[in-house]
Amino acid sequence: MLPVRQAGLLLALLATVAACASESSDESGEGSVDDGDRADEAAALVNGEVASPAQFPATVFLVKQKCTAAKVAPRVLLTAAHCLFDAFAKAPSLVKGGGVHYTRDTKADAVGKTAVVTDVILHPAWQAACEKAACVSNEIMAKIDAPDVAIVKLEKDLDDIRTAVIEEKPLARGDRVIVLGYGCEAGVMGGRPKLDDRRLKFSETSIIPATRTVHAGSPITQPDVAMVAGSYAITGGPGLVGARAGLCPGDSGGPVYRWRGSQLVVVGVNSNYTFKPDDVVGLPVANFHTRLDGQSRHGVAKWLRANGALAP
To answer: How many structural domains comprise the chain?
Structure first.
């Protein structure tokens, strides 16, 4: 969700926050087709493949927040911190005792069911940084040294939603993952779909180096790479040559899955993206996914375990 130089795209990105030729390979991070930027990558969230009702049964759409989430433990939802934070009020937008509306099928159930919230826990590093910096733009959020992740605790379990457990193993370059969400489908400037037109879409893609976030139009510079890599896994978007999987507003907070044997496990959370400077459509070059492993920069796995989202 990183802004580009076009004023129209910047305005679209700010609204999202308020609502919620091949290159050669070298060590500078320009990468190659081996980074997962292959021409045969599966169709993505922008242009993507629609999930069947039986697929990804732990994934839900948060109606009022306009974000995707996953049930990762009984009475615990995992999503992005920016989905639950009022950047202008500098406080969580979802409160204890309130209700969160969720659905898996926006066409059949656009309003969603209501679950009572008992706690809203944003990662403390992210909340502190955004209380100080006022995260009113995606460019600001891209530069803060904090993981964009949050959990919502519920009064009762969601019996109609399956649980997908979090895996602590770090992601490595080239690892295959599944990115998904209920976001828009035509790029950031393509307009937001109506609630009952939102579809859960997915794509299998690969992890690429964090150095790929450094490019024309991106706020990330070379000195930022270690910080980015410490908190985020990166996948290539449709703005990158040959890549296909691209996040779009509404995909934020969605789980990143990978297969562990016959089981899908959660290994990340959709967070952010970068664009080329001349992009008037809003097709991400690099997608940011919050790391959940114990080796992440801010020890996210330890925080998740302490708050009941990860088994002891």
So the answer is: 1
Q: Distance between CA 164 and CA 156 in Å, rounded? A: 17
**Single pTM value for the model:** 0.86
In a domain, residue 1? The reply is: no
Per DSSP, the residues of 261-288 read TTEEEEEEEEEEE---TT-SS---SEEE
Token couple for 22? 């091949």
Long-range contacts of 139-146 (CB under 8 A, 24+ apart): 139/2, 139/3, 139/219, 141/1, 141/17, 141/82, 141/272, 142/1, 142/2, 142/218, 142/219, 142/220, 142/228, 142/272, 142/274, 142/288, 143/219, 143/220, 143/224, 145/227, 145/231, 145/297, 146/231, 146/298
Residue 176 makes CB contacts below 8 A (sequence gap 6+) with 204, 205, 206, 258, 259
pLDDT given at position 156: 97
What distance lies between CA 241 and its chain's CA centroid? Answer: 21
User: Which segments in the chain show pLDDT lower than 70?
Assistant: 1-47, 188, 190-196, 241-243
Q: Which CATH number is 189's domain given?
A: 2.40.10.120
106 located within any domain = yes
- Which among 149, 147, 172, 150 is positioned nearest to 258, based on CA atoms? 172
Q: Return left, alpha or beta for 259; rule: phi > 0 is left, psi -120 to 50 is alpha, else beta.
A: beta
